[in-house]
Each structure stands twice: as C-alpha cells, then as structure tokens.
Amino acid sequence: MLRELKRYLAADQLVDVIYLDRQGETSKRTLHLQSIEGGSIKAYCLSRRAPRVFKIDNILAIYPASVTKKEA
After folding, report:
1. Which of 9, 14, 48, 64 could share a disulfide with 33, CB 3.0–4.6 Å?
2. Which pLDDT does position 21 carry in this prediction?
3. Residue 71 clears pLDDT 60, i.e. is over it
4. How is 36-65 classified by DSSP, letter by letter?
5. CB of 71 within 8 A of CB of 17?
6. How far apart are CA 23 and CA 14, in angstroms?
C-alpha cells in the first residue's frame, strides 16, 4: 500500500480510496494526495471539499481516480 501511495503522490495523480472510518464503516473518497507522514497521509478530499488525514492502515484499496483534476 505504501509503495502505491508514494507512486501516486509522485505522479500528482488523483486517487480513489476505500477505507474504514472511525466508526468502522467503509467509505469511498476521491483524494489529491499531499504528503505521507509516518502512518498517515494528508490529502485534499474532493468528496468533503476539505483537507483530511487518513491512517494508512485503514485504507483497504487505492486506485486511480475516475475523474481528472480538470473535472474536479
């Protein structure tokens, strides 16, 4: 997972992630990755239109976003 995150961050590519939130519910978000720090990533969440921090251990899947930056 960390290798993929670093690759997407270096490519400045939007990603879709599926992760477990604080309540243990799964959620899908489209993110613009900003940095990787320890066990977390800082990203701008296009779904919430706000910066967020995500624990890497809670990310279940990551893949290229279905939208481009121009569309976002």
Report:
1. 9
2. 86
3. no
4. EETTEEEEEETTTTEEEEEEGGGEEEEEE-
5. no
6. 25
> Average pLDDT over the chain, rounded to whole?
91
Q: How many CA atoms lie within 13 A of 56 on its CB side?
A: 14
Q: What's the pTM?
A: 0.84
Domain ranges of the chain: 2-64
Q: Domain 2-64: which topology?
A: SH3 type barrels. (2.30.30)
List pLDDT tens digits, range 17-47: 999 988 999 999 999 999 999 999 999 999 8
**Residues ≥6 apart with Cβ < 8 Å to 62:** 1, 4, 5, 8, 15, 16, 17, 18
